[in-house]
Amino acid sequence: MFAKDPIINLENFQKSRVYFGYYLGFNSFDFKIDYRTVAPDILVTKTTGFNVGIVADLKLQEYINLRFEPGLYYSKRNLNYPDSYFEETPTPSDKIREVNSTYIHFPLLLKFSSMRTGNIRPYLLGGVSTTLNLSSNSKSKDDNAEQRFRAKSWTTNYELGFGIDLFSEYFIFSPSIRGVFGISDELIRDKDPNSPWTGNIESLKSRAILINFTFH
């Protein structure tokens, strides 16, 4: 693949109008939090989650493709609240909210590829996505006063990233890294407008780093 004059693998692959694939990968989700008044930050503890999904790719032009990459993403974040958010001394369970999220993610992306050099072809990705959070608790009547953190079921995002196509004899392996940036506020406020968990939050938006390994 990296030889000076390599054998060109899958030479006719780029002529395909439509092709499919699948991906496996990892994610690290975070929250971007904007506040209504100046206060100590709510600290977000992140963990590494996983992704799995499929790819449908439509060739629009020699170097531009439209991609649909629906997938299932699992992530976990903890929100750690400062003592100053509470009127009385908080218990350890009051100060932390576990946010376990199972997402069905629907990205629609444009892929901008460079010219192929041997069996290597770098590319850039960009587009928009919508996400269904199956663990949002959006229909729950309980809120943080009953230890129940709630978020909206549907959110929208924009995405930017880059990757590289590596052409082997039988398939294309495409590692990529991508940032996901939430556009819409996803927090559902507690019934109490002065709630220590939601009262000072102007907006709460997900953002993430995705590392995917795609096979075509």
UniProtKB/TrEMBL annotation:
Residues 16-186 form the Outer membrane protein beta-barrel domain. Pfam families: OMP_b-brl_2. SUPFAM superfamilies: OMPA-like. It comes from the Bacteria. InterPro entries: Beta-barrel_OMP_2 (IPR025665), OMP/PagP_B-barrel (IPR011250). This is PorT protein. It comes from Flavobacterium frigoris (strain PS1).
